[in-house]
Structure formats: C-alpha cells, structure tokens
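Example (one chain per record):
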Amino acid sequence: MLRNLLKNVRRPVIDFESYRKPRKPNIYVLAPEGLCQFTPHMISPEFDLPVTELIAHFEEIFFSMPNTEFLTERLTGENGQDIQKEYVHYSRLIGFPDTITVRFMSLAEGRSSIALISRSHYGYRDLGVNKGRVYYLMQKLAEKLGIKE
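Predicted structure:
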C-alpha cells in the first residue's frame, strides 16, 4: 500500500549534456568524460560490442534485481543514435522509488558506452544506495563480459 502511495513521483526527462550537478547528495552519476556539465562520480568505460548487445546484457542484470520495472524509452543523442531508458528500483521494505536513467551510446566500429544516473526521490541523503547500485551493475556487467579491472 505504501509503495503505491510513493510510486507517483515527478521524473523530469534527463538530458545528459545539459544536466547540472544536483544540490542533494542522493544521486550517483556514471558517464563518459565531457558528456555532462560536471565531472561525474565515475567515468564509464567503452565496451567492445554493439549497443544492442550492451542493452541486452544490462537489462538481464538489472531485471535480475528484485523490485525493478521498466518505465520509458526514447532516442537521443546528436543524430538520435543513442537509446535512453528509464527504470525504477523500489526499496525492499518501504518501497521508496529510485529512478535509474540509462543512456546507451553507439560508438564507431561496433563499440558502445553507457551513461547512468541513479537517483532517489525521497530524502536528502541515500546512505550510499545509489552509488552501491551503480557499482553493482557495472561490476556484474564487467563479469558478464569478461572484463578484468
């Protein structure tokens, strides 16, 4: 019941290029250098696979976590070649919704990269939940693709 009351949050569309550093620390940003107007918390790697495969691997990992849902998808980027998706992950006990915005970027020669913003909608701090989520997703993605750190 509480989860249903909390789920209707305002989710503005994220444009990574014009996105400004948020004032609240309940967010974690992973992006390639120069994509955002500020230095992200973590620089994203390039992957040696097409963007469609990256999406499939990412979603397999993301949806293996409990309490996750797909929200929206749109084309974005300079020529509309990137795919941006939004997901929600609800906290286990109370059902607080955290929005995860992911931009899957197609690069030259069958390569791809990812930009990701994980953000809480309730509270000022998140006790590292968003950072942990991004680290978990990237670690699992690296494991799945056989990438050594």
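Caption: The radius of gyration is 15 Å.
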